[in-house]
Amino acid sequence: MRYFAQFRAGLAELVLDSLRRDLTKVTVVSSDDSSLLFDTGSSPSKVGQLGYLKNAFSVLGTVPRSSLQRAAEQFADQILSTAVLRGLGRMSAFRTMVSVDGKLVGLPRPVKDRFESAIARATGARVSPRGGGAEFWLIGRRDLKSMLLCQRLTAGVKAGAAGSLGADLATLLVKASAPRADDVFLDPFAGSGSIVRARIALPFARAIYSDLDVGEPNLQVPPEIRRDKRVKVLAEDALVLPSVPTGSVSSIVTDPPWGEYDELDTDFATFAERMLAGFDRVLDPRRGRVVLLLSRRAAAVTAGLWPGANLRLTRSHDLLVNGHPASAQIGGRPERAG
Asked: What is the dihedral of CA 99, 100, 106, 109, to 10 degrees?
């Protein structure tokens, strides 16, 4: 079945990597920096559950790219003359939306009325402009030769706390670590807790949230982390982590200081070398995995330091974080990283 997904600009590589982990037989039809048209054997309910997608849609029909008015009229004819809306299940209400290149736009009233009347006749549902039922979208993208008629599957990504890593990116980073139900997880630069929250949303054995500012007024540990007895909260230097036993951690996902917007006690290369040496100590020597979110410049430094920490960097995804060029570096112990 064909689907259309929207996500935050700059996350395309990580999104595709996660889709291939979460869904079956993913084939890309078209993509740009903030959307993806793809086929998969997975069900609409499975696609709709992917929390890192801003919006996900099942594609119900297509018409050649043209003006919005012409496309809406063609879809109205298609809905009335074919079975394009059959098999969608019972619905009592619906509303329509129109999106072109990620921006919501309007249709002339006569065209909108005809479009919605066709959907109402085909489904037996009533129009509910304020929502509360199904959503049918007419979508156009600059790189697509067709206009899409879609049904929305998701309610959108929830925003994180101010200044925190977005929930979508945190989830994508966790997914990149190949999480396991028996993981002992560590985020040594936990900050607002976005990555830890994303990790404990999936099955895990134990988790460690560590940040030097724990207990300071500027950092409040999220209550869901405080309440979970499987999560240990530490206020320790991420380069030392004295309370974490050697070889006890199976997975590290973290967003360390980038060395560009943060004050460090030393140059970034020295900091990064000490950081990775600390990871080497606490990571399981057989199955330890690591995911780092870094600035593009910092990533160029750390890339050469992984082997010295008995780690293998297997892949790196370029992305944007709040408009800044960044990289997600992914790897682990050599015997696990292949």
From this structure: -100
